[in-house]
Amino acid sequence: QQQVKQSPQSLIVQKGGISIINCAYENTAFDYFPWYQQFPGKGPALLIAIRPDVSEKKEGRFTISFNKSAKQFSLHIMDSQPGDSATYFCAASRYNQGGKLIFGQGTELSVKP
Amino acid sequence: DVKVTQSSRYLVKRTGEKVFLECVQDMDHENMFWYRQDPGLGLRLIYFSYDVKMKEKGDIPEGYSVSREKKERFSLILESASTNQTSMYLCASGEGTLNYEQYFGPGTRLTVT
Which of A54, A77, A106, B3 has CB atoms 3.0–4.6 Å from A19's, for a disulfide? Predict the structure, then answer.
């Protein structure tokens, strides 16, 4: 049972373009939605996160859009750069689960120069 | 700067061997986690611990056990390694109360032959 579904599995974007990765969740009790970024040979690292009381959060070129009614959230990377090439994971968590995260399947992003 | 270290980057073991994967964190975090990462499946939680000597099963605990004798150290044990346990294993730690961010180690690539 996959509680968080992520798409696409892979994405190729030209430098300067917009990268969009989507996630859908099932459990309405989730209250924390982070995105993690993983470079080859490294562990994932928190990129940006949102709670369901807001519809959008922006940090630099990275934006999370959140649609509570549709149970979907997405990551937008504006002005994508080759250095953004990495694997991205969305995740979700419930407030009483001790920070336990449910991860999506991952998206391998390649930004071409 | 939070640091999570894992005892080995690469490990090759034979079927039936007992395997120990060690993880140490230096931030006095309450929570520690073990995940396995497989292409197309994302990160799946094996076990987590919210206090010394306390542990809870994750989504895929079969064939694994864990030990947490000290707060900073969390070990994953494969009692009798099998080829379907060939994977990347990631350890993470986190505060787990108001801050759900998890900090990951670099991973151990385990191959069981």
Answer: A77
What is the pLDDT confidence band of residue A2, given thresholds at 50, 70 and 90? low
Distances (CA, A) of B77 to A56, B66, B105: 41, 6, 17
Nearest one of B11, B29, B39 to B104, comparing CA atoms: B29
Q: Say if residue A69 is exposed, middle or buried (CB neighbours under 10 Å; 0-12, 13-18, 19+).
A: exposed
Q: Can you read off the two tokens belonging to residue A96?
A: 């009483």
A103 part of contact set with chain B, CB < 8 Å: yes
- pLDDT tens, residue by residue, A50-95: 998 999 999 999 999 999 999 999 999 999 999 999 999 999 998 7
Q: How many residues does chain B have?
A: 113
- Cα separation values, B1 from A99, B25, B27, B32, B96, Å: 20, 11, 8, 17, 17
Q: How many CA atoms lie within 13 A of B14 on its CB side?
A: 0
Which two three-digit tokens encode residue A2? 């996959």
Quick one: which of B13, B5, B14 has its CA closest to B75?
B5
Cα→Cα distances A33→A4, A12, A110, Å: 10, 24, 23
Residue among B35, B58, B100 whose CB faces A99 most closely: B100
Of all residues in chain A, the one with the smallest CA distance to B38 is A105
Helix, strand, or coil here: A107?
strand
